[in-house]
Amino acid sequence: MYAPPLFHRHVAPLGRRRGGVLAVVAGLVLSLLAFVPSTPASAAPALLSQGKTVTASSQENGGTPAGFAVDGDNGTRWASAFADPQWIKVDLGASASVSQIVLRWEAAYGTAYRIEFSTDNNNWSTAYSTTTGPGGTETLNVSGTARYVRLTGTTRATGYGYSLWEFQVFGTTGGGGDPQIPGGGDLGPNVLVFDPSTPNIQGKVDEIFKKQESAQFGTGRYALMFKPGTYNNINAQIGFYTQIAGLGLKPDDTTFNGDVTVDAGWFNGNATQNFWRSAENLALNPVSGTNRWAVSQAAPFRRMHVKGGLNLAPNGYGWASGGYIADSKIDGQVGPYSQQQWYTRDSSIGSWGNGVWNMTFSGVEGAPAQSFPEPPYTTLNNTPVSREKPFLYLDGNNYKVFVPAKRTNARGVSWNGTPQGESIPLSQFYVVKPGATAQTINAAVRQGLHLLFTPGIYHVNEPIEINRANTVALGLGLATIIPDNGVTAIKVGDVDGVKLAGLLVDAGTQNSSVLVQVGPDGAAADHSANPTSLQDVFVRVGGAGAGKATTGMVVNSDDTIIDHTWLWRADHGDGVGWETNRSDYGLRVNGDDVLATGLFVEHFNKYDVQWYGENGKTIFFQNEKAYDAPNQAAIQNGGTKGFAAYKVADSVTTHEGWGMGSYCYYNVDPTIRQEHGFQAPVKPGVKFHDLLVVSLGGQGQYEHVINSTGSPTSGTSTIPSQVVSFP
C-alpha cells in the first residue's frame, strides 16, 4: 500500500472438512519420543521423549489425548479405549540409544505389555515385556537403538483402558546425532518486560518509539511486555516492528489507564504506510475515552479490551488503507472514518461508525447488519473455524505460551470465562536469538522443542523445517526471517496442528521459488480435527532491499487456516522495480478445505492469488494490482488484459468468498486496462458475495469486476464498481 487510498477486503467461508479424521490420538507417542544416543549404561541419560510427536491406537475422550503423556505434566494423562490391545508410539526424530523407560501409570494400568523399538516404523523388536506389571511408577532399564518407541498393552488391570500420566524415554545421543539443545532461558535484550513498579516506563516506551516511528525498513525489532497489574498515565506510541502485549492470561489482567497509540505524524497525516506492528492482550481505559489505532496492513489488534471507543483514522482523518481486529472487545464505538476497508473477527463491539468501501465482519457481536453495497457492510454471524494466536504469558513467575483451542462457528471473544487451550512451559521452547542458524533451529524441532523467536533478523541458508505435529513457532516483535541462497524460508510438513505466528519473511537477493510452504507437494492427509494455522505471518519481497521470489506462500496441506496475512511485493522502499523485486505470485492454495480470514495480498507481477484446492473459503480479501507495470504488454495474459487479483482454477467445483476488493493504480502507464479483478469458473458451487474493484484517480481502469460481470470503472472519481452476488 502506498499514498493512494486503499480498500480491498475478501471474505470467504470455511472450507468443508474432507472426511475421515485421522484419529491417531497424537498424544501418547510423544512421551516415548526421545532422542537417545548410544552410550554406556553408566552415562547419565537424558529425557528425550518430552514434547515429541506421539500417536496412539485410541483415546478415551477429548480430554485425554496422547500428547498429555509426554507433556512433562503429572496432572495430565493419556487414556485409551476400554479394550485390548492398545498402543502408544513416540517418534524421536532420529535414531538414538535408549537406556531407560519410565511409566507413570494412573490407576488404570497394564499388567501385560511390551516395549518395542524400531528404526523405520515398520520392523519392530521387543526391548522389554511383562505379564505381571505392578502399576504405579515403573522404571525399566532397556538397551537398544530406536527412532520409534512403542508401548503395546495386551492385558488391563481394570475394566477401564490404559492410562499414563507420563511416558518417558531416556537415553543419549551420540555420534552423528544432534546435540541436546536446552529449552527456556532469557528473552534477550529486545524484549522489554515491565511491571507497575518499573521506574520511568513512559520514558523507556518513548525511547523505543523514537527509534521506530519512521524506521519503515530499519533493522530494529522490539517487544514491550507488561506483567499483570495496573499502569497509570501511559501513552504507548507504537512504531514499526514493535509489539506491545500484556503478560496475563486474559486482557483484563493487564490494564492501562492510558492509551496504546498509532498515528501518522511521521508521514504527514497519511496512515497508508503504518505497517508491521501489533497490540495484544491488554485492557485500555483511554484518557480521552477513545483510543487511536490508525494503521494499515500487517498491524493486528488482537485480544484487546478497550473500555471506550476506538478510532482507526489518523489525526486529521488522512488516508488509511485497511486493517484487522480479532478476539477483542471494544465497549464503545469503532470509528473507521477514512479507513477504506477493515476486517473484524470473533469480537464484540459497542457499535460501528461508518463504511467507505468494504467493512467485513465475521462472528462479531454488535456488528452492523449485512447491507452491502450501501453501506458497504458484509456481515457473517459466525466464523466457521478459527483458532486464536498463541501468546506468551506469566503463570506466577514462570513464562508459558498459551495455545488457544480451535473454535467452530465462533462468535464473540474467546476469553470470557476460562480460556480453552493448552499452556506450554517456556522450558519446552527453544528460545531463538539473533545469530541462531537454521541447522540449530531444525535440531531443536527434531528434539521436540517448540520455537520462540525473540525480536531480531534471522538469515537462514536452509529451510526451517517443521515436520512434528503440534509444533508452535511464535515470533515476538516481528521477528524476521531472510532466506539466503534462494532457499525456502519455512517448510511445514503434512502433519496436524502446527502453529506459525508473528513472523515476517523477507525475500533474499537470490530468487526463492517459494518463501513459505505449508505441506509438501501432493499433501493429502486430513487435518480437519486439528488444522495447521498461520496467524500474522507476513511475506515481503523488496522494500528493505532487493529481493526476489517466484511465489510468496504455497499451501498444500488440507484444512489449513490462514488467519491474517499480508503478502506484499513492495511498491516503495529500496530494491523496487518491475524486474528488480520480481515476484509473479503471492499465494497459491493447492490444499482442500483451506480457510482464509483476513487475506491481504498486493502488487505481484502476475496473479496475486491462485486457488486450486476444493472447498476453499475466504472471508475478506484486500488487493492492489502492481503499480509499476511499465505498459499493457507487460501484464498481458494471453488474450486477457492483465492477471486477475484472485483466480479460482477452472477445475474447482466448490469455492466461496465474501467481502473482497481489488484496485489498480497504474501510475507508470495510466492507459493500462485490467480485464477484471476476479476470475472464477461459472459453476453452482463457486459463489462470491460483495465484490468490488476501484481505479484510484483514473490511473488505469477495470473493464469488469469478476469474469465479464460488473460495470467498468471510469474517470478519475475513484468510485468502486460492485457486484453483490456471483454468479
Could you characterize the architecture of this molecule?
This protein is mainly β and 727 residues long. It is 4% helix and 43% strand. The chain has 4 helices and 51 strands. The chain has a 16-stranded parallel sheet that branches. The longest helix is centred in the first third of the chain and has 12 residues, at 201-212. It is globular and about 85 Å long. The two termini are 30 Å apart. Mean pLDDT is 92; it is low at 1-43.
Secondary-structure map with pairings?
Blueprint: H1 28-32, E1 46-47, E2 53-56, E3 78-79, E4 86-105, E5 110-118, E6 125-130, E7 137-156, E8 163-172, E9 191-194, H2 201-212, E10 222-226, E11 229-237, E12 242-246, E13 254-261, E14 277-280, E15 283-284, E16 290-292, E17 301-302, E18 305-306, E19 309-311, E20 323-326, E21 329-335, E22 341-352, E23 358-365, E24 377-380, E25 383-387, E26 391-395, E27 398-404, E28 406-410, E29 421-425, E30 429-432, H3 438-447, E31 450-453, E32 457-460, E33 464-466, E34 472-483, E35 490-492, E36 499-506, E37 512-518, E38 533-541, E39 549-555, E40 561-569, E41 585-589, E42 595-602, E43 609-611, E44 616-624, H4 632-635, E45 646-648, E46 655-664, E47 673-674, E48 678-679, E49 686-695, E50 701-702, E51 721-726
How many β-strands, per DSSP?
Answer: 51
Uncertain regions spanning at least 5 consecutive residues: 1-43
What is the typical, i.e. mean, pLDDT? 92
Q: Give the N-to-C terminal Cα separation.
A: 30 Å
| Main beta sheet | 16 strands, parallel
Q: How would you sum up the global shape?
A: globular
Give the structural class: mainly beta
Relative strand content: 35-45%
Per DSSP, the total helix count is 4
Q: If you compute it from the alpha carbons, what radius of gyration comes out, rounded to the nearest whole angstrom?
A: 26 Å
Helical content (DSSP H or I, runs of 4+): under 10%
